[in-house]
Amino acid sequence: MSTAKKALRGLSNLGIFPVMKNDMTGYSVGTKIPVYGVQEITSQKDINEWKVYADDGLYDSGAEWKGSSFSLTLAGLPNELRSYFEGGVYDEATGEYTYSSVSEAPEIALSFSSVSDSESLELTKVYSAKCTKISFEHKTRGDGNSVTPVRIEGNFMQRKIDGAIFTKKEAATSDISWLDTIEAVS
Fold this sequence. Notes:
The chain is built from one helix and eleven strands; from the N terminus they run βββββαββββββ.
């Protein structure tokens, strides 16, 4: 086990993968779609802690994983990518994106990198995510040149065949090809 100090900095190389199958018989994803302008991703585990008291004391305790909420902030979100996050329809011919009250976000997988030190990166693959809300706040430009970031919220879920949520890997800064695919499981 490594005892080296590790402080992650930065966030880049975000990609999404449409989940084609995620059930008890198998898991597979489509081709990676790069997402540019990633500013921040945060995640918070949702667990149920339980305790059993017996013999005048704590007899047993544990926690059950229920899910994990996430928030992703992008500098902008092109129309051609919106349907992957909120489930509307993008028309390539017209460049129009239409969202309706019956639109449902599809299941996606994610991959991204963080700088670990001057020679290595921490690479992450998240196997299943579903977005629940997209928000933004348009403001007048005024004297500044700030952009209107897009905040995407949702839940990380498990890969149903084996319960996996994510995998992380250390890699040299020049080798991020591991992020380009997510292997099928059957």
